[in-house]
Amino acid sequence: MAIDRRKFLKIAGLSFLFGTGVFSLEEFVLCRGDEVLAQVVGEGKKGKVRWAMAIDTRRLTEEDCKRIIEACHRAHNVPDIPEPTKAVRWIWEDTFEHAFPELAEEDPSEELRNRKYLLLCNHCENPVCVRVCPVQATFQRPDGIVVQDYHRCIGCKFCMTACPYGSRSYNFFHPKEYLKHVNPEYPARTMGVVEKCIFCYERLDQGKLPYCVEAAKGKIYFGNIYDPEAEITRVIKENLVLVRKPQLGTKPMVFYIV
Amino acid sequence: MLEYALKGRPKYWIWILCLLVIIAIGFYYWVLEHKLGTGVVCGLHKDLTWGFHIGQLAFFVGAAASAVMIVLPYYLHNCKEFGRLTVLAEFFAVGMVVVSMLSVFVIMGQPQRVFNVLLYPTPHSIIFYDLIVLSTYLFLNLLCGWTVLHAEYKETKYPSWLKPFIYWAILWGPSIHMVTAFLIQGLPGRGFWLTAIMAPRFLASAFSAGPALLLVLALLLKKLTGFDIGKKAVDTLSKIITYAFIINLLFICFELFTAFYSGIPEHTEPFIYLFSGLQGHSEWVGFAWASVILALIGLTLLVIPQTRKNETTLVLACIAVVLSVWIDKGLLLMIGGFTPNPQGVVVPYKPTFGEVMIGVAVWAIGFLIVTILWKIAVSVYQSKNLVVKMKGN
Question: Does the residue B2 lie in any domain?
Answer without folding.
Answer: no
